[in-house]
Amino acid sequence: MTRPKRGVMIIVSAPSGAGKTTLCRELLKIVPALRFSVSYTTRPPRHREKNGKDYFFVSPEEFERMERRGEFIEREEIFGNLYGTSRKNIDSMLASGDDVLLDVDTRGAKNLKQALNEGIYVFILPPSLQALEERLKRRGSEDEPSMIRRLERAVDEINDNYWYDYIIFNDRVKTSVSVLQSIYVAEKNRRIRQLDKVAEVIRSKEAGRTDGKNYR
Predict the structure, then answer these.
(1) Within a domain: 41
(2) Number of domains composing the chain
(3) Has residue 4 been placed in a domain?
(4) pLDDT single digits (tens) 176-197
(5) Residue 73 dihedral angles phi and psi, to the nearest 5°
(6) CATH at 121
(7) Distance between CA atoms of 21 and 10, rounded to whole angstroms?
(8) pTM reported for the whole predicted model
(9) Residue 11 near residue 102 (C-beta atoms within 8 A)
(10) From CA 57, how far away is CA 83, in angstroms rounded?
(11) Which one of 78, 87, 169, 209 has the minimum C-beta count within 10 Å?
């Protein structure tokens, strides 16, 4: 039995409020083959977030137990809340040949790259810091000190963009989703990922010769 080809992993991260979660949700709608990696977090659910779909919401005690058991391939503390990516879930999906989409913060993305040394890393940016501030205000979940901390961290994250593979400026959601989909399609068609199909074409040429056909 042929072992399935290892899946492609796309990691999307961004400063808080830049729109990465919205882009990931929209991409999943138009690319049903993608599987979403649901992270664990100790923060409370936001409006309309569902346990098991957006995050696995767990207590700090449960998160720490999972961490001690080595269940996280990466974990980060962000503004007092813990976030982690399940090692077992990622390994299982990729080994089964599934393509996986991850929505993680910038530190988590860097930790994943160091731990796995694979994946396509996409950084989402707002058109300006002023636009980012307006988005955080509209979200309505931040007080003034929290918003200032997020904007200050956003500057640090933007300055640390050099290790990403792609950058998308998220001015219009529809356009940004289209760009993100194009990145996924292009990566799926990289030469290294198409060598099995190339070999099939070559084998079909040899089969043609046995049928008396002459391919050049």
Answers:
(1) yes
(2) 1
(3) no
(4) 999 999 999 999 999 988 888 8
(5) -80, -25
(6) 3.40.50.300
(7) 13
(8) 0.85
(9) yes
(10) 10
(11) 209
